[in-house]
Amino acid sequence: MEIDRRIKIRHLRTFVEVARTGSVGRAAELMHVSQPAVSKTLAELEAVLGARLMDRNRIGVALTPVGQMFHSYASSSLAALRQGIDGVSDTLAAGGLRLAVGALPSVAARIVPDAAVEMGRVAPEVGLAIVTGPNGYLLSELANGSLDLVIGRLGNPEAMEGHSFSQLYSERISLVVRPGHPLVGNGDVTAISQYPIVFPNRDAAIRTLAEQFFIAQGIRRTGHRIETVAETFGRAYVRRTDAIWVISSGVVALDVTEGKLVELPIQMRETLGPVGLTMRGDGSPSPALRMFIEAIRRTVARLELAS
Fold this sequence. Notes:
By secondary structure, this protein is α/β, with parallel strands linked by helices. It is built from eleven helices and twelve strands. It has three domains: 85 residues, Arc Repressor Mutant, subunit A (Orthogonal Bundle), CATH 1.10.10; 101 residues, D-Maltodextrin-Binding Protein, domain 2, CATH 3.40.190.10; 99 residues, Periplasmic binding protein-like II (D-Maltodextrin-Binding Protein, domain 2, 3-Layer(aba) Sandwich). Keywords: DNA-binding, Transcription, Transcription regulation.
């Protein structure tokens, strides 16, 4: 249920202060406003809620039963808000604050740059250390405390022990080649075995899915095969040869859009896998990490990747 937008923080603060002091006059004095202003604010709050919260008498004010119930929620909400503001302020004021983020190649190329730009705008005091590498390595670094967050494909069950995962979107594998490759426009899967392959190595998150796809499609391992997760090598090698690059679609999305690489027209839906945020299961994220996570989510939504 959406909160009525007519209720402002000043309504809650005024109500809680009057309830605490038991006096409109005393609350007005402490808040450095006039008594009529306090009375008007209380009347506005009661009008929005459609209920009387306080009874006025010669001694002061007393909460009605409804007022007592509302007071418990209003006071706890203000306390939580103060803690949140203090937490962010303390975190950002700390010198040398840094977040260490592990990013698989697909998100390092497509998601993290925009999120880093937004983070630099809203929290320039927070430094970012972006680490890339195989999924297994990044998850091990997360487990030992070297990383605060890993963004990428869901890891295998053993590697995910003690971690929590929150999905952002689903991503498939792509088969890409250089422009002008003999297979451009050719959807014949069996022809793939005639060309060199750049394939994800054993530590790659997409390795198992890629292997399963090749087996299911009857693609024989006959040609020259290079196994690596180094996208800089894969990009350079494929542009210079007739090799076919087996890679997460996010890694080469910009290359395909700019026409530097071409995706083969082969149905890869069965290679879809979840991409998301992995954190240690113990404790809660710091205010700075929560801000970065929100920047990631907004980037995903802006790129219309959310699933």
